Amino acid sequence: SSDLVTNYSYLLQLDAKVNGELSQYDDELKVSNLIQTIDSLIAVPNITRDYEIAITNARIAYNNLTAKQRMDITNREQLDVLEARLAISIEMEDGQHHTLAMIQQAIDRLPSLNTISLADAPAIFRADALVKQLSAQQQGTLQNTKQLAKLIEQIRALQLKYLQQEQLEDELNDDSYGQLAVIGSTLHVTAPR
Fold first, then answer.
1. Helix 100-108 vs helix 121-132: angle between axes, to the nearest 10 degrees?
2. What does the alpha-carbon distance between residue 126 and residue 90 come to, in Å, rounded to a whole number?
3. What pLDDT sits at residue 101?
4. What is the DSSP letter of 191?
5. Are 153 and 165 in contact (CB under 8 A)?
């Protein structure tokens, strides 16, 4: 029976190619499914504790993606919003009421634009979600809402920068590069192909 197999190496190459295609399709499916999940959750008008498992699972799925795949999640920013809305909903279900004074304190406790870090994201998104649940008249009585909008913009930029850096590191750690060398201020890459 071994006489019948004359192109075994070709079969191995074909098998590797098919597995690569299937893996790529699986990756695309993960991204597509997560985008749909986030969109479905964002469409829910009143996030309650009942959605905690779904939102937690969406975050876990997002965190388990590669940096490149996370870049492909077009609505990734909405995941932070969902988590903030969930936290507020749980607080309210537990009997905590959010007065205008408490919301103002949440805004006032936020870092300045000069000291913001990724660790500040949950507090920033929570404050923003608290403000957004108010009427326009109530929002008008709050101070520093323009500062909050700038913080949202800044944290989004930091998150994107971090994700891009992580993606670059993933690419640089990939075995597809033969040699990397920094000469002056230029990165020179030699591929083995």
1. 150
2. 12
3. 94
4. -
5. no
The pTM of the full predicted model, rounded to 2 decimals, is 0.72
Output the six-digit token pair for 171: 């690419």
Q: Which residues contact 55 (CB under 8 A, 6 or more apart)?
A: 41, 47, 79, 82, 83, 86
Number of H helices, E strands in the chain: 8, 2
Would you give the end-to-end CA distance of the chain in angstroms? 36
Helix residue ranges, H only, 43-144: 52-63, 67-72, 77-93, 100-108, 121-132, 136-141
Residue 96 near residue 110 (C-beta atoms within 8 A): no
Is 37:17 a contact under the CB 8 Å cutoff? no
Residue 40: pLDDT band (50, 70, 90) is very high
Half-sphere exposure of 178 (CA within 13 A, CB side): 4
